[in-house]
Design brief:
Shape: extended
Order of helices and strands: HHHHHEHEH
Strand order of the largest sheet: 1-2
Structural class: mainly alpha
Distance between the termini: 46 Å
Radius of gyration: 20 Å
Largest sheet: 2 strands, parallel
Helix content: 40-55%
Length: 182
C-alpha cells in the first residue's frame, strides 16, 4: 500500500516515462486498461492490486478474491447502487466520456491528460515523438476495411495489431492477413 504522496509520484513517473531508452511514447491505454479504469472508478479494485509494478503475490490475489466473493449477491454492490453512488443525477445529461472523467476524479485519478507534465525529449530512431497503433483489428474483413480507410483518409499508422482473436483464424487466414499488411 502506498500513500497519496507516493501515489502522485508514481503517477507522474508513469506519465513521463512511457517508453524505453530507444525513445518515443510507447504506452498504450487500450480496451483492457480503460475497462479497468471504470471498474476502479466504481471502487471495485482491491487495494492490494492497485499500482502494481510487478505481478501480484498469491496472497494479494487471495485477498482480492476473498473480498470480491464476499461482495457477490449483496444489494449494495448491484449495478444500480454502484451507479447511484458514483454518478450524480445531474451528470446524466453529460456525455459518457465526461461521466467517466468525473468518476476517475472522484476516486483520485486524473480525469484528463496531465498537460503540466514536461514533454519527453525521447524520440524514436527516425526522430518521431510518437507512433500510432490500431489495436484489436480482428480478422481479414476488419483488416481490409481498416487498410482501405487508412488509404482513403491518408492517415499514417505505424502498427496494426490483433488480439487473442488470432487464435480463431486458420493458418491460411493468418498468411492472408500478413500479405495484406505487408
Amino acid at each position: 500500500m502506498i500513500n497519496k504522496t507516493e501515489h502522485k509520484y508514481f503517477e507522474k513517473q508513469l506519465a513521463v516515462n512511457t517508453c524505453d531508452e530507444q525513445g518515443g511514447v510507447c504506452a498504450f491505454n487500450g480496451t483492457g486498461n480503460s475497462s479497468r479504469h471504470i471498474v476502479a472508478g466504481f471502487g471495485l479494485v482491491h487495494s492490494a492490486l492497485e499500482l502494481l509494478t510487478d505481478a501480484p503475490s498469491q496472497e494479494a490475489i487471495n485477498q482480492a478474491v476473498d473480498q470480491f466473493s464476499g461482495m457477490l449477491n449483496r444489494e449494495e454492490y448491484g449495478v444500480s447502487k454502484l451507479i447511484a453512488a458514483n454518478i450524480n443525477i445531474h451528470e446524466m445529461r453529460r456525455s459518457n466520456v465526461e461521466i467517466t472523467k468525473n468518476l476517475l476524479r472522484q476516486h483520485g485519478y486524473p480525469g484528463s491528460d496531465i498537460y503540466e507534465l514536461p514533454s519527453s525529449e525521447k524520440r524514436f530512431p527516425d526522430g518521431a515523438q510518437y507512433r500510432v497503433e490500431l489495436p484489436s483489428v480482428e480478422g481479414i474483413a476488419a483488416l481490409k476495411t481498416t487498410l482501405d480507410e487508412i488509404e482513403r483518409h491518408d492517415v499514417l499508422i505505424h502498427r496494426i495489431s490483433q488480439g487473442s482473436g488470432i487464435m480463431l483464424l486458420s493458418d491460411e487466414e493468418i498468411k492472408e492477413m500478413n500479405q495484406l499488411a505487408a
